[in-house]
Amino acid sequence: MSNSASHQAPALPEILTPILALVDEDDGCGTLAAAARVNTVWFGCATGLLWKQISAPALGCVPAHRRQVYASKIEALVFTAEDGDLHEPFRDLDFVLLRELTLHTYREEPGKAALYHLRQYCNPRLDKFYFFGGELDQEFMSYLQNTCRDLTRLWIDLPGDNITADSLFDFVSGFNSLEEIHLKGGIDHLLSDKLLYHLARQPNLRELDIGGHLSATLLSDIAQKIPGAFPALGSLGATIQSACVPVITRTLEHVTCLDLTILDADLEAPTVLGSTPRLRKIKIRYDCGVEFTTRYLLALKSLQNLENLVIQLAAGPFDISNPDMPLFSDSDFQELVSGLSNLRCLELGVIADLSVESLYLLSASCPMLEELKLLSAFDLQTLLTKAGEEPIFPYLRRLEIIEIPEQLFKSIDDLIMTAANVFTQIEIHFPELETLSIGTGHPLAQMITEMFYESDDEEESEAGEEELAEN
After folding, report:
1. For residue 122, what pLDDT band results from cuts at 50, 70 and 90?
2. Which of 96, 364, 416, 452 lies deepest, with the highest CB count within 10 Å?
């Protein structure tokens, strides 16, 4: 490259923007903020990255006469429940690049239609719309449908009282490009068989969370009347009777991810799922009384492709000291995890009586584990002390257990030294850990937890100071 070309390169947005994007990944916003002050070209490229995804209050803090400069760069915008008063000041702005809109608890002002406040966010580029509570109305839904023809992702929770089952059907069926649909809280009364039949014919629908409307009879009827129903569906979330589980695994041949709330224990759902080897992610929440036996869990041990396994019981944690409560033992646990080498998330909402050896086996069997939550009390200090030099869980980001054993200490200094030693070992053996919960029932657990989160705060503060010093 000639000298003149090499000097011109940093002035070309198509070259400068990817470079600054790499800087953003490594150094954060501080470096981009400095880059924005170099010249006009650098300002345009840097602010385009800084303002790509932003919260509504950040735009609200900009002087009104300059908001359009930044509004034209925003690709994802989030409004919380406290940001409702910002729609009016934003009504004349053009969000020409906006692709993702999130609204939490939206309600129009009395006497003014919702359309008046929200239409500025609707443009042909918008392809993701998330609505979490408030008052949707048919006028805005029609405007969104007619303007954003290429919407691919739609989430609606708690839509309010202004829409009907027919209007929801008309709204959803008006889009031909939807790939992900989540219709959950406070919306079951608006779901219909007609809507499910429509969705079953959609060639691009990959992810569906349909609340509590799905039944074994309805799904069987759809499978009979629509050959190859849900042809692209890979992920399903639903609140169902247990009898629906075998129908799901039999008729939805491409589904590999299940998020199911099960309302009864008439049928052993894990036993059915255990014979479905294609499954990669399983989340089951029992919203009923159920005696979760070891047979249930061990039925899942053959799912070698499993990456996420989450079992939750609506009854909540049991008293681990209760001698009558069936325990998930060392041998059971080891038998379960020994074949799940792809596991990245494990959450078992059943009481487990686990030794240090089981955690070592988990580390060896599931080396990619990122999240671990167990209703178990185990000796974290012994686990870390006996470990070698290599991290036990090199990728673990979340660890939650009931408690660690209580100890008596001769002095506060002894307590502090022990906690500091455990904390140091945590940093060595769980180097990526972001969330730690080991109970707060006694001083040692409390102090380890405090040290862990204080360390995170200090690291963030030091990083911020370094950015300020550089700039």
Report:
1. very high
2. 452
Tokens of 7: 């000097």
Angle between helices 330-337 and 356-365 (to 10 degrees): 0
Q: How confident is the model at residue 330 (pLDDT cuts 50, 70, 90)?
A: confident
pLDDT per residue as tens digits for the range 246-290:
999 999 999 999 999 999 989 999 999 999 999 999 999 999 888
364: its two tokens: 């060896």
- 66-91 pLDDT, tens per residue? 899 888 889 999 999 888 889 999 99
Cα-based distances in Å from 23 to 13, 35, 50, 415: 15, 10, 12, 43
Record the pTM.
0.84
Distance CA 76, CA 165 (A): 29
Q: Which two tokens stand for residue 115?
A: 């359309």
pLDDT band at 464 (very low <50, low <70, confident <90, very high): very low
What is the three-state SS of 370-416? CEEEEECECCHHHHHHHCCCCCCCCCCCEEECCECCCCCCCCHHHHH
Tell me the C-alpha distance between 60 and 79, whole Å: 11
Averaged pLDDT of the chain: 84
The 3-class SS string of the chain reads: CCHHHHHHHHHCHHHHHHHHHHHHHHHCHHHHHHHCCCCHHHHHHHHHHHCCEEEHHHHHCCCHHHHHHHHCCCCEEEECCCCHHHCCCCCCCCCCCCCEEEEEEECCCCCCCHHHHHHHHCCCCCCEEEEEEECCCHHHHHHHHHHCCCCCEEEEECCCCCCCHHHHHHHHHCCCCCCEEEECCCCHHHCCHHHHHHHHCCCCCCEEECCCCCCHHHHHHHHHHCCCCCCCCCEEEEEECCCHHHHHHHHCCCCCEEEEEECCCCCCHHHHHCCCCCCCEEEEEECCCCCCCHHHHHCCCCCCCCCEEEEEECCCCCCCCCCCCCCECHHHHHHHHCCCCCCCEEEEEEEECCCHHHHHHHHHHCCCCCEEEEECECCHHHHHHHCCCCCCCCCCCEEECCECCCCCCCCHHHHHHHHHHHHHHHHHHCCCCCEEECCCCCHHHHHHHHHHHHHHHHHHHHHHHHHHHHC
Which amino acid, one-letter code, is at 383? L
Residue 410 in this model has a pLDDT that exceeds 60: yes
